[in-house]
Amino acid sequence: MSANLKVERLRKVFSTGKAAIDDVSFSVPAGDIVVLLGPSGCGKTTTLRCVAGLEHPTSGEISIGPDVVSAPERGILVPPRQRNLGMVFQSYAVWPHMTVHQNVAYPLKTRGTPRGERNGKVADALELVGLSDYASRPVTQLSGGQMQRVALARSLVYQPQILLLDEPLSNLDAKLRLRLRDDLRKIIKKTGVTALYVTHDQAEAVVLGDRIGVMRDGKLLQMAPADELYNRPADLFVASFTGASNLVEGRVMAREGDFGQVDAKSGEKMSVWLPAGVQPGEAVKVAIRPENVRLGTNGAAEPNTFRARVSGTRYQGTQTVYELAMLGATIDALELGTRVRFPIGGEIDVVLPPVQCWAYPAQQTIESE
Q: Which of 41, 40, 42, 69 has the alpha carbon at shortest distance from 57?
């Protein structure tokens, strides 16, 4: 039976004195998948290891269902084996001297599950991950993707309350990674288990997660469904990390509701979305995704239409990235299609939809400490 997971004001300080996790709070409703996303060293794996009980938090509380499993300030620290968790590691962590069936059956054997019941549960788990025909095969004869499916079946066979996955696809080649990524959400959802998944790969996060939490320097910056994360990033780092690579510097001249007017360095005026707290007179950086830049107009007058010069092109087969000199900056625009439509040196009209131009305080940075 799956359970909800609750993490409150979690903090972990190592011997260096720097907080690897700094006041992180989130919850995962029973049956949901939450993905922690961020660059190396941001604290996402340490958070997962604290949930698993493999790291001891400095402060804060972790609850699984109605039970508090970690609360250092109250002297509570439930051992990992008593938390009823499943865990899939980056390395497959399969036992090389065992068959596929023996690997998956091992957790049930250590729990004293009767042989008949054990065999039935193993068969169900192998069917779930698509390995029914491989039960008697030595695990060393499997591909990397198949070994990771064995590890997944082994983690699910005893029906844990929470499933923890620590970058489980990172050791696979690109083709296997895509195939297992697409299957993984279906498998997890079919079992109904609550899952916490850690990755640095945005595509994995979007495909797998009901919600995605972006971390940086030990802090959880935003947790939201993928469409909200990609269309309303909480700050400049989240916008940049999820692909808004274009930055235009300017100053807010006026604000009306959620939108405002920004004067770019070129002197041209932009209509942009403004997060709460950004006021007229403030220096800002406007973040824009290359795929949200529209080349050419539909013939009607539209806000944020500018003239741009094509300063470079990067042909990528099924798409082209145009480098555009405009607004006192160089802006990338991505266009799908197998032909390059605009030559280097040419001038074109470009539309930057105001709802997809996000202005953040200029002092915000996109680099981790």
A: 69
Which residue pairs from 235-238 have beta carbons closer than 8 angstroms and sit at least 24 positions apart in sequence? 235/275, 235/360, 235/364, 236/285, 236/287, 236/360, 236/361, 236/364, 236/365, 236/366, 237/364, 237/365, 237/366, 238/214
Q: Which residues contact 127 (CB under 8 A, 6 or more apart)?
A: none
pLDDT in tens, 333-357: 999 999 999 999 999 999 999 999 9
Distances (CA, A) of 136 to 93, 133, 269: 18, 8, 68
Measured between its terminal Cα atoms, the distance across the chain in Å is 40
Q: Residue 276 burial (CB < 10 Å; 0-12/13-18/19+)?
A: exposed
Q: What is the dihedral of CA 40, 170, 33, 194, to 10 degrees?
A: -110
pTM of the model: 0.91
Residue whose C-alpha is closest to residue 25's, from 228, 222, 234, 241: 222
pLDDT digits (tens, 9 = 90+) for 167-224: 998 878 778 888 888 899 999 999 999 999 999 999 999 999 999 999 999 999 999 9
Candidates 196, 153, 233; CA nearest to 29 is 196
Length of the chain: 369
